[in-house]
Each structure stands twice: as structure tokens, then as C-alpha cells.
UniProtKB/TrEMBL annotation:
E.C. designation(s): 4.2.1.22
EC main group: lyase
Organism: Jatrophihabitans telluris
The reaction(s) this protein catalyses: L-homocysteine + L-serine = L,L-cystathionine + H2O
Shown part of the complete sequence: 1 to 334 of 458
Pathway assignment: Amino-acid biosynthesis; L-cysteine biosynthesis; L-cysteine from L-homocysteine and L-serine: step 1/2
Alphabetized UniProt keyword annotations: CBS domain, Lyase, Pyridoxal phosphate
Coiled coil: none
Protein name in UniProt: Cystathionine beta-synthase
GO molecular function: cystathionine beta-synthase activity
Similarity field: Belongs to the cysteine synthase/cystathionine beta-synthase family.
Cofactor: pyridoxal 5'-phosphate
Length: 334
């Protein structure tokens, strides 16, 4: 018999898949190889399973998380799923705090795993008592035996990527990777994977962050954008800014258009931050050479966004859906 005793053992070791259609506009004489690291193959459906297991194990070892304790975390959903799966296996309770822009399906998913969920307004400052950061701090104070992983400041977030994602990408490409592209949320993925790849290649691999237009990472003011899980209005400790060579800003519209193309043309039903990262990867590909190998990390699957990005009405309500690039919403209606 061949089986796993725990789902946790299935975290990581995700495949690389070549992007062949969304890259077809590239000049074949110069086109680099563009490979997607498809993180929805993790058991919780996202890259965040990696940090969940590492953060929990470190907290158990340090004594911060005791048997029967409660995990309290502000999360856009994916970290919650990872934490819920690991917690469930080890007898912890989970309480999650989410911003209200998160898709209803994501909230319901967390509840399905048995977690308790609090939804908070997005359009308030982080220090506002209603913000999802403030509410989670209050819950930590009020609940006995509460532990907050705090993925934004927890060194085990970038460390999990330094120990798993980075070595996987390096080995899967036989050390031929030249560019690594990933969206930046907490910054854990890009900092940990990027640091490993810089070290392994003697500084040769270029590390490129993708960021929603409006987020501070690419020089914005923190104004709202719709793509979920990436961008911020502050600089988290988990993000080591010395690792990235460049940050590319991508609009919601471009992110969502490419997300839809990934499903239709590549068979990859993935989330909006994946489309965003691929837009950035294509910009890199357009100026790269034939021998270059670009790896772009796709953080999650698209099932949680069916009512939004993959819904024509939602897309057209925001003016994202039209017949040709550059058309206005008016053109859609005619
Ligand atoms: N995309 C999605 C959908 C996410 O949930 C996250 C995590 N916040 C990211 C991208 C960014 O990853 P990281 O936090 O490691 O920067």
C-alpha cells in the first residue's frame, strides 16, 4: 500500500509547467523559457501551506503555541486554510480575521475547515480599531492560550521559502533559472525564495516582484485595488527589500485579463495575483534572451474567484471587460 499518514506531508514539491500560449507573441528567435510554479497543487490549494506548517512547528518548539491553544491570524484566506489544516491535525482551534474585499467563497472555505471567521472593513487605516490588524490584536488579548503567527513579521514565513520553494526551483531548473518573478504580499515568498536563489547562483538570478498599482511596494500611496493577497499600504518585516532587483506595478485590469487567459489558454484556473505575476513575467520575457529561464510563482487556484474575475457581470461592472485593448466601458455596452 502506498499512502500518506497526514495531508501535511504533501505540502511543497509543486511542479513547474511551461507557459506556451500567453508567451506566443514573443519573437521565437529570442523567446526565453517561461515556467510557472503551480502552487495550487499544495493540499490547501495555495503557496501558504508552506509557511503554515513552518510557523506552527516553530511556535510549538519555542513554547509559544501550547497543546489545545488557539491560532489567531489576520489573513486573506490562503494562510488561513494552511493553518487550519495543520491546526486540525494537531488539536488547535483557529480564529481568522479577514478584510471585507475577500471573496465570499474564501470565507466559506475557512468555515468549512472548522475555523471561526471575523470580517472587517478594508477602507480603514491599519491603526483603526475596526481594521483587520486591530481586531486580531484584540482577539489575541482576549482569548486564553492565543498565539498569533503574524505572517507579516514572522521570520519562519520567508524561512519556509528559503528552505523549500527556493531549493525546489533551483533543482527543477538544474540551476538554469535566470529570473524569478512573484507577487509581493507579506513579502515572504519573494524574500525567502529570492535569497536562496541569489545565494545558490552567486547573485546571478534576478529577483522581480510584481505589485498591484497603488500599493506602496511599487511607489503607490496604498490606494485600494481589487487583486487579492498582494500589495500593501505598509512595509512588513517579512519583506527583505534588499533581495528584489526590481518591482513591477500591474493594474487590476491587466491582472484579471491575464488571469482569464491562463484558464482559457493554458488550462490553469488560478487566482488574480497569478495573472498579475504573469503580466510582470511577460514584461521580463519581452526583454530577455533565448537562453533565459524565467520562473513565475502562481500562488493559488481560481475556484475562490468564480464570482469575481471569472464572472462577466462583475468584470464589466468594474469596466474590466471589453472587446479590444484600450476600449472604454462604453464600447462594451454597444
Ligand atoms: N497571492 C495570494 C493569493 C496570496 O494569498 C498571497 C499571500 N498574501 C500572495 C500572493 C503573496 O505572497 P507573500 O505573502 O509570500 O508575499
Amino acid at each position: 500500500m502506498r499512502y500518506y499518514t497526514s495531508l501535511v506531508d504533501l505540502i511543497g514539491n509543486t511542479p513547474l509547467v511551461q507557459l506556451r500560449s500567453v508567451t506566443s507573441h514573443l519573437d521565437p528567435a529570442n523567446a526565453p523559457t517561461v515556467l510557472a510554479k503551480v502552487e495550487y497543487f499544495n493540499p490547501g490549494g495555495s503557496v501558504k501551506d508552506r509557511i503554515a506548517v513552518r510557523m506552527i512547528e516553530a511556535a510549538e518548539a519555542s513554547g509559544e503555541l501550547k497543546p489545545g491553544g488557539t491560532i489567531v491570524e489576520p489573513t486573506s484566506g490562503n494562510t488561513g486554510v494552511g493553518l487550519a489544516i495543520v491546526a486540525q491535525q494537531r488539536g488547535y482551534r483557529c480564529v481568522f480575521v479577514l478584510p471585507d474585499k475577500v471573496a465570499a467563497d474564501k470565507v466559506n472555505t475557512l468555515k468549512a475547515y472548522g475555523a471561526e471567521v471575523h470580517v472587517c472593513p478594508t477602507a480603514v487605516a491599519p491603526e483603526d480599531p475596526r481594521s483587520y490588524y486591530s481586531v486580531s490584536d484584540r482577539l489575541v488579548r482576549e482569548i486564553d492560550g492565543a498565539w498569533k503567527p503574524n505572517q507579516y513579521a514572522n521570520i519562519n514565513n520567508p524561512r519556509s521559502h528559503y528552505e523549500t520553494t527556493g531549493p525546489e526551483v533551483w533543482e527543477q531548473t538544474d540551476g538554469r533559472i535566470t529570473h524569478f518573478v512573484a507577487g509581493v504580499g507579506t513579502g515572504g515568498t519573494i524574500s525567502g525564495t529570492g535569497r536562496y536563489l541569489k545565494e545558490a547562483s552567486g547573485g546571478r538570478v534576478q529577483i522581480i516582484g510584481a505589485d498591484p498599482e497603488g500599493s506602496v511596494y511599487s511607489g503607490g500611496t496604498g490606494r485600494p485595488y481589487l487583486v487579492e493577497g498582494v500589495g500593501e499600504d505598509f512595509w512588513p518585516d517579512a519583506f527583505d527589500r534588499t533581495i528584489t532587483d526590481e518591482i513591477i506595478a500591474v493594474s487590476d485590469r491587466q491582472s484579471f485579463e491575464l488571469t482569464r487567459r491562463l484558464a482559457r489558454e493554458e488550462g490553469l484556473l488560478v487566482g488574480g495575483s497569478c495573472g498579475m505575476a504573469v503580466v510582470a513575467a511577460l514584461r521580463v520575457a519581452e526583454r530577455a534572451g533565448k537562453d533565459d529561464v524565467i520562473v513565475v510563482l502562481l500562488p493559488d487556484g481560481g475556484r475562490g474567484y468564480l464570482g469575481k474575475i471569472f464572472n462577466d457581470q462583475w468584470m464589466s461592472d468594474y469596466g474590466f471587460l471589453d472587446t479590444a485593448a484600450g476600449d472604454t466601458v462604453g464600447d462594451v455596452l454597444t
